[in-house]
Amino acid sequence: MTSSPQHWDAAYAAGHETRGWYQASAVLSRVLIRDTGLPHDCAVIDVGGGASVLVDDLLADGYSDITVLDQSTVGMQIAQERLGDRADQVTWLTADLRTWQPDRAYAIWHDRAVLHFLLGDDDVSTYRTRLLEATGPGSWAVIGIFGPEGPSVCAGLPVRQYDESDLEALLQPEFDIVSTTFADHVRPDGDVQQFLWGLAKRL
Ligand SMILES: C[S@@+](CC[C@H](N)C(=O)[O-])C[C@H]1O[C@@H](n2cnc3c(N)ncnc32)[C@H](O)[C@@H]1O
Description:
It is a single chain. The chain has six helices and nine strands; from the N terminus they run H-H-E-H-E-H-E-E-H-E-E-E-H-E-E. Helix 1 crosses helix 4. It is α/β, with parallel strands linked by helices.
């Protein structure tokens, strides 16, 4: 089993709201994005956003330049159908973030539950390269990945766990890590997963 578009399309087609990563509201992401203090017309990208409700929350908060990138069209279609006409206010990119060529800099890079599916050091290094290409000085990164007590398998795929030093290795020296937060995600089936969240500002 690999983290392919087909894998994720099938996972979403089986029922988005029963998937382990589902959350009815992207509460912590919303708080951390607000904590950047950036104006609501700043460019925000949700990498691996899939069907996440973060885009709904950001539109409700008044953000006007939102991009969602995902390799799963089925995932993004769920979000688009949920949003209806409001989906037209969002840029949707179907791409594998490892091979994607960003054509602009984003003020906020948001990732919830995507990076930890990249297992090899080469893929993690590619993620870091993409993050640097898609941001610039003054940009922020909001990244939520499994913590040291997080699961070793999720969505039928092996995952990596991150501690604070792993986050430092990913983000430094280009980013100043402003805060790290451990937070539990309660899955729809009641299981609890430990996440580590990093909020970082690019120097
Ligand atoms: C566990 S889900 C999380 C979805 C969303 N961030 C959320 O919080 O609901 C992981 C998402 O990452 C996407 N994904 C995984 N690897 C990817 C890659 N290399 N490029 C783009 N998207 C990827 C999947 O299609 C899926 O939508």
